[in-house]
Automatic annotation (TrEMBL):
InterPro entries referenced in this protein's UniProt entry, alphabetically: Biofilm_reg_signaling, GAF, GAF-like_dom_sf, GGDEF_dom, Nucleotide_cyclase, PAC, PAS, PAS-assoc_C
Protein's recorded name: Diguanylate cyclase
Residue intervals of the PAC domain: 282-334
Coiled-coil regions, chain positions: 187-214
Cross-referenced CDD domains: GGDEF, PAS
Chain ranges of the GGDEF domain: 428-558
Domain PAS positions: 211-270
Keywords for the protein's UniProt record, in alphabetical order: Coiled coil
Pfam family of the protein (one): GGDEF
Length: 558
């Protein structure tokens, strides 16, 4: 620029500066403003490359806009340089007013810092003021426009089009442009903040202006069930209003729903869950009764609604049908705990049920009647799922802290009947019958796994039919089965083993062919102080003793 007459240069630069500054004021957003700043340096101030580094809330500077080279733009846009490295740059080199020029002879020390930068190639300068590819020129932007204000960003420029370092007027133009760019960026930020504030205010006003009709539309046409119920007082939970989706789900008309409270609709076993969740933010999964007498699993979510600051409060309840998900969950739980071939409890479920009856502390004697009553009535909730007293399983140990810890007061200890040599004192125990099929391997080898699987399925059926409803028949693996039978004496257990063996012996027909297997039973006794594995090992050993004690030809029916 300075090669022509100075007045013409200044006039042309002023025109260009005026145009690019005018462009700054037309940007619609902060991002547009930053890009306009970078483009203005290239289009109006005579540089081939320009970069805008914006100060982030954490103080570091991010490359927010780039102009002049798409490849360099893709390389460094969005990258971050630390505030410490930038402070170092802005104190090096030569101060050209508010600008900072770092000649190539000093700038090599910056090649390895963390400030994003691009590299240009070119020949060594041939004369004193020729621009070197490694020269750096920075124009800081301050919030107040003066160098004493808060730094909001830095404009980096490179490669003047005339190939020379800018003269006094070029420096002044860049400094003036940085001043105007700082104002434009500050205004853009202010506009963005004001727009966000206006949006928030408008949203709040829309919420305040929301009428009963808008709420009715959202409520009535919600795809899932919704209800409004009273909160607190004698009428807590009484249904005031329901939408069509909830009426369809429960098969009840809206007029009938208003005669009920949620406690009238919930399954009796879930009433406690409902009461615990009838509060702000309460959530639960429970069963609601349909008009036809069936129950459906739902997800219940409550929130509190107030008409005014001190007005009455209501429960807004969202009811979602989760019947299909619950069905899948039950199927998955069943698959995890049951044998896929026979449908019997598997090894893991067997050990879980057995462990539920055992505690770590051995028990020397039989529990008294008072202890049993205390355990039955004073500590509900100690039963494992599906192991309530009514199905033949005892209470589960709860809250045990260790071998000698507290928390055993309400545990009814599992004890074993006296040994056969001792007099029978009437003690009943938890018998563990370990069953191993005799001759099963030969069936598998001769007729294939299809026949073997059919035999296992039939044996499982016969064992299940031969025990009481509260007993457990499990498949341990292969051709091994285990029966847990509570409340038996030693003679009772022996009689049960004989009955089950006789049930297994009859021929089993598979694809028109009759095959037969025998069974060897070992009887172990579970008692507190033993682990589930120890109990099963004991029964297993007794089974092998029993198997060896019988002649081979008598172990299999044929």
């Amino acid at each position: 620029m300075e090669t022509e007459s100075e007045p013409y240069v200044r006039l042309a630069t002023l025109r260009q500066l005026h145009q690019v500054v005018a462009d700054l004021n037309t940007a619609r957003s902060l991002a547009d403003t930053l890009q306009t700043v970078a483009d203005g340096v290239v289009n109006g101030l005579g540089y081939e490359l320009a970069c805008v580094n914006l100060v982030r809330p954490d103080g570091d500077l991010v490359v927010a806009a780039f102009a002049g080279n798409p490849a360099a733009e893709a390389l460094i846009t969005g990258r971050v340089g630390s505030r410490e490295s930038w402070e170092r740059r802005l104190t090096m080199g030569e101060a050209w007013g508010a600008l900072r020029f770092i000649p190539y002879s000093e700038g090599w020390v910056l090649d390895e810092d963390d400030v994003p930068q691009w590299y240009t190639e070119g020949p060594e300068p041939r004369f004193e003021d020729e621009w070197h590819p490694s020269d750096r020129l920075f124009a800081p932007m301050y919030a107040t426009g003066a160098s004493g204000g808060e730094l909001i960003g830095v404009i980096s420029v490179d490669r003047p089009r005339n190939g020379r370092r800018p003269g006094a007027w070029g420096r002044e133009a860049l400094q003036m442009y940085a001043f105007q760019a700082a104002i434009a960026i500050s205004n853009a930020r202010l506009r963005a903040n004001m727009q966000r504030a206006l949006v928030r205010l408008e949203r709040e006003q829309q919420a305040l202006r929301a009428s009963e009709e808008s709420f009715r539309q959202a409520f009535e046409y919600a795809p899932s069930g919704m209800a409004i119920a009273e909160m607190g007082g004698d009428q807590h939970g009484r249904i005031l209003r329901t939408n069509d989706a909830l009426c369809r789900l429960l098969g009840r008309p809206a007029s009938a729903m208003r005669r009920y409270s949620f406690s009238d609709l919930v399954h009796p076993e879930d009433i406690g869950t409902l009461l615990r969740t009838s509060a702000e933010g309460g959530r639960a999964e429970l069963r609601f009764g349909r008009r036809d007498g069936t129950y459906v699993w739902v997800s219940l979510r409550n929130s509190v609604v107030a008409d005014a600051a001190d007005g009455p409060r209501f429960l807004l309840t969202h009811v979602e049908d989760i019947e299909e998900r619950k069905r899948r969950e039950l199927q998955l739980a069943h698959r995890a705990s049951h044998d896929s071939l026979t449908g019997l409890p598997n090894s893991a479920e067997l050990r879980a049920r057995l462990s539920a009856r055992l505690c770590r502390r051995p028990h020397a004697g039989q529990p008294s009647t008072v202890d049993s009553l205390d355990a039955a009535y004073d500590n509900s909730g100690l039963y494992a799922p599906g192991h309530a007293p009514g199905n033949g399983h005892g209470p589960v140990m709860g809250g045990h802290t260790g071998m000698h810890g507290e928390g055993y007061d309400h545990h009814v200890h599992t004890v074993a009947p006296p040994e056969e040599a001792d007099p029978d004192d009437g003690t009943k125990g938890l018998a563990v019958l370990f069953c191993d099929l005799d001759g099963f391997k030969s069936i598998n080898d001769r007729f294939g796994h299809h026949t073997g699987d059919a035999v296992l399925i039939e044996v499982a059926r016969r064992l299940t039919n031969g025990v009481r409803d509260g007993d457990t028949v499990a498949r341990l693996g292969g051709d091994e089965f285990v029966v847990l039978a509570d409340g038996l004496g030693r003679a009772d257990a022996q009689d049960l083993a004989v009955r089950l063996r006789n049930a297994i012996i009859p021929p089993i027909r598979v694809d028109g062919r009759a095959v037969r297997v025998g069974a060897s039973f070992g009887i172990g006794w579970a008692h507190c102080g033993m682990s589930a594995d120890e109990v099963l090992h004991s029964a297993d050993q007794r089974m092998y003793i029993e198997k060896r004690s019988r002649a081979k030809q008598h172990r299999r029916a044929g």
